[in-house]
Amino acid sequence: MTTDVLKKVPVREQDAKQRAANFEEVCLGYDKEEAMCEATRCINCKNAQCIKGCPVAINIPGFIEKVKEGDIAAAYQVISEASALPAVCGRVCPQESQCEGKCIRGIKGEPVSIGKLERFVADWARENGIKPDGAKEKKGKKVAVIGSGPAGLTCAGDLAKMGYEVTIFEALHEPGGVLVYGIPEFRLPKEAVVAKEIENVKSLGVKIETNVVVGKSVTIDELMEEEGFDAVFIGSGAGLPKFMGIPGEQALGVFSANEYLTRSNLMKAFDESSNTPIMHGKKVAVVGGGNVAMDAARTALRLGAEVHIVYRRSEEELPARVEEVHHAKEEGIIFDLLTNPTEILADENGWVSGIKCVRMELGEPDASGRRRPVVIEGSEFTMEVDTVIMSLGTSPNPLISSTTKGLEVNKYKCIVAEEEFGATTKEGVYAGGDAVTGAATVILAMGAGKAAAKGIDEYLSSK
Amino acid sequence: MYRITKAEKLAENIYLMDVEAKRVAKACEPGQFVIVRMDEAGERIPLTICDYDREKGTVTIVFQVVGAATELMRHLKTGDAFQDFVGPLGCPSELIHEDKAVLKQKKILFVAGGLGTAPVYPQVKWLHEQGIAADVIVGAKTKDLLIMEKEMEAVSGNLYVTTDDGSYGRSGMVTKVIEDLIESEGRQYDLCVAIGPMIMMKFVCLTTKKYDLPTIVSMNPIMVDGTGMCGACRLTVDGEVKFACVDGPEFDGHKVDFDQAMKRQQMYKTKEGRDFLKAKEGDTHHGGCGNCAS
């Protein structure tokens, strides 16, 4: 295989037309030959910037070196020292703004395709039955982890590797958090990838108890006082979906992206054999421009709809990963940018019939540094749609903070946790991920889970 | 898995089950609910808690067969198990947080309609255990659909049973009984708690409003996760959007927008809603409506 050293080895994908009608994975990943070829593009920098760009600080040149040698098993062990979920991260991390964004290769050409290499290594290890190494000795202390999303799984995995006895409590009937209910099958296969990564975490000795809503089924105080947990990590995720507060939002056919995606992903409503219903709209407006909006839009498309992304800023400000926007466009999602809904219209039976919008233009930068969208006077128009999906982010769920003594929240109701190790205001209780930061990314949650595992280890070692 | 220790048919299409769920049985309070899932392909079904036994670690649920999922559920027998049983969800009834002395001074009227008798029962029972006798109106369409009469009798003050068709007890709707009690039978109440079909709760609220009688209702909209994540259960209370699963399920009935809530409930829950959805989707209908899928 020969290659232009300035360019990534291209990755195979399902054809856009074909995949727009199925739920199978879009990106097909590298094979070993392609991976080894791409690995040769890494120049193994002494002061590797890519590691600094990685929230869990994977030894990136280290694992790529092993790929170059063709020793994929060794590459996997290098990654799993730092990450519990490489097959997930290789698929959903925003590499362009993290590891790959810092890659020296990226100055003159394209950066090394670190994400696709990570994915290849993780997939290869799974297919070849290689598991991460477990703890050598037990510490004899118990840690409870609340939530089995990326933060919780990472924290639990790291603590188990250190020798702690870890139990994860999950509110839903299946572990995985956002990896299961939020991110669609075509981006992150559930059985083949997520379930297997969770198996790996379990193989380290982590127990998972599903159907436990901490704050309702049991409180943190009870876990510590009655069930003998020496420390607790809260990785309960972001929580309640936001709505715009515009007229008509209670009409039939208006969903939060959370509801729409949960029905499709967790409850498998896209599959005809599932008992859970989902509305198959003909023309769908997805309001918002983040990764979740892209996921909802591409799900609606696969269920047979014409789909419009309605976003009030311009393409440049879209918070979604570049790859997701690119894939969405390829599949035929229509982007109505600089457009903001003002009202949802309903027919005489209460079902959505349209969405009233105004055109926007960009003004001066706001507090987020992005140019603030301003309404263009007299630009109001109506778009005929039968489904509206609101993807505007979430606000924190009060279930845990309101039932735990001594746990402080900030003015946004996010749990207050110290940045370095995630310590909260309650002794022995740590927190990280969206419960602390508000809605963010999988890898940032993993970074926080990892930091908290260190914090908990230090706390319990000094006790 | 959550083992069923008792399964009983209470009336046509109404079933009662005791289910082993230690954490739920330990933590639940009157007014809360659970979500059950029968098997891998099952829907998540919210059900109110009818009773609980903290020592045995069991929770009693009562459900009515309304669709594909509950149709399958009714065939479960003693010794079978639910795949999933999660809870307790929602906030407990406000009664249990009230000062006991204040509560004892209050005259409380419960109004239970049909299946609503099941979630009313633990509240009346709890009050009974505190030495408070609350009056209860139980309404059913007809005699054969009346449930838990004996149990309710054992824990309530005055029990007034009424059937729509007059086949048992008093005759007519629960709203008529409320009017009769207050207007011609000299009863006075400080608080009303009404649980039943949304249409019943709506009319109870219209009735109690005439008497300025504060009324609590328990809402049962469509839900998916039941922990606040999906927002499917949102409803408007006093002009504000609330989530029944985390802010409720109990709300001030005089402030609930029932017409909107009833419309939203139609979506997948009733045959009409599902058929309407199918007609609306036309060519793009791929099943998943709960009717043609299984």
What level of helicity do the residues of chain A show? 25-40%
Tell me about the largest β-sheet of chain B.
7 strands, antiparallel
Strand order of the largest sheet of chain B: 6-1-2-5-4-3-7
Main β sheet profile of chain A: 5 strands, parallel
Task: For the record, give the distance between the C-alpha atoms at the N and C termini of chain B, rounded to a whole number.
Answer: 23 Å
> What order do the SSEs of chain B take from the amino end to the carboxyl end, as H and E?
EEHEEEHEEHEHEHEEHEHEEEHEHH
Overall outline of chain A: globular
Determine Rg of chain B (CA atoms, Å): 19 Å
Describe the structure.
The complex is a heterodimer of chains A (463) and B (294). Chain A is an alpha/beta fold. Helices cover 35% and strands 17% of the residues of chain A. Chain A has helices spanning 16-19, 32-39, 49-53, 60-69, 72-82, 86-92, 99-102, 105-108, 114-127, 150-162, 178-181, 190-203, 220-225, 257-265, 291-302, 322-331, 398-401, 434-437, 442-462; strands at 12-13, 27-29, 142-146, 165-169, 207-209, 231-234, 239-241, 254-256, 283-287, 306-310, 334-336, 339-346, 352-365, 371-375, 381-383, 387-390, 394-396, 429-431. In chain A, helix 4 runs antiparallel to helix 5, helix 5 (72-82) crosses helix 9 (114-127) and helix 14 (257-265) packs across helix 15 (291-302). The mean pLDDT of chain A is 92. By secondary structure, chain B is an alpha/beta fold. Chain B is built from ten helices and 16 strands. In chain B, strands 6-1-2-5-4-3-7 form a seven-stranded antiparallel beta sheet. Chain B has a seven-stranded mixed beta sheet with strand order 11-10-9-8-12-13-16, sandwiched between helices. In chain B, strands 14-15 form a two-stranded antiparallel ribbon. In chain B, helix 7 packs antiparallel against helix 9 and helix 9 (258-269) crosses helix 10 (271-281). The interface between A and B is large, with 52 and 53 residues.
